[in-house]
Specification:
There is one protein chain. 29% of the residues lie in helices and 19% in strands. The protein is an alpha+beta fold. A two-stranded antiparallel sheet has the order 1-2. The protein has a two-stranded antiparallel sheet with strand order 3-4. Strands 5-6 form a two-stranded antiparallel ribbon. Strand 5 and strand 6 (86-87) form a beta hairpin. Helix 1 packs across helix 2. The chain is globular and about 50 Å long.
C-alpha cells in the first residue's frame, strides 16, 4: 500500500472562461502534434501546418498552437470553443494543457472566485 496522498483539486475548469487557453504561447511537442494528427485523421506535417506556428525568441524556436480572436481575452487557442468556453480537443490536448496548473490550486480560479464573490456576480469575468 502506498503512503502517497493524492492532493484534493481546488479548482473547477468548467467555471472558468478559459484563461489558460489565452496564453499567447501554448507550446506543443512532436508527440502533441502526432496526437492532434491522429485525432483529426491527417498527417503530422498537415497538423503542423494547420494547427501550429513557430515562435522565434532569443532562447530559440518554439512550436506553439495557433490562436483565433476572442471577445473575452482578445485571442485564444484555436481549439477553444468561444461560445461554450470549452476545449474542443480535450482528449487530444497537448501535454502542457494536461499538466496545467501542475498542482491542486489554480491562481486564476482563486482570483475569479474572489472577484465573483465581491462583485456579487456568479458569472463575472474580469476584463483585460
Amino acid at each position: 500500500m502506498s503512503s502517497r496522498t493524492i492532493p484534493i483539486v481546488r479548482y473547477d475548469c468548467s467555471q472558468c472562461p478559459g484563461y489558460c487557453c489565452s496564453y499567447p504561447r501554448i507550446e506543443v511537442k512532436a508527440k502533441d502534434v502526432a496526437r492532434l494528427a491522429k485525432h483529426f485523421g491527417i498527417g503530422v506535417s498537415e497538423a503542423e501546418r494547420r494547427f501550429t506556428r513557430i515562435y522565434k525568441s532569443d532562447e530559440g524556436n518554439e512550436r506553439i498552437l495557433k490562436h483565433h480572436k476572442d471577445t473575452v481575452y482578445g485571442s485564444i487557442c484555436r481549439f477553444f470553443d468561444r461560445d461554450e468556453r470549452r476545449c474542443t480537443i480535450y482528449k487530444a490536448r497537448p501535454g502542457v494543457c494536461r499538466a496545467y496548473p501542475d498542482g491542486p490550486k489554480c491562481g486564476y480560479f482563486d482570483f475569479l472566485k474572489f472577484e465573483r464573490k465581491h462583485q456579487g456576480d456568479a458569472d463575472f469575468i474580469p476584463s483585460a
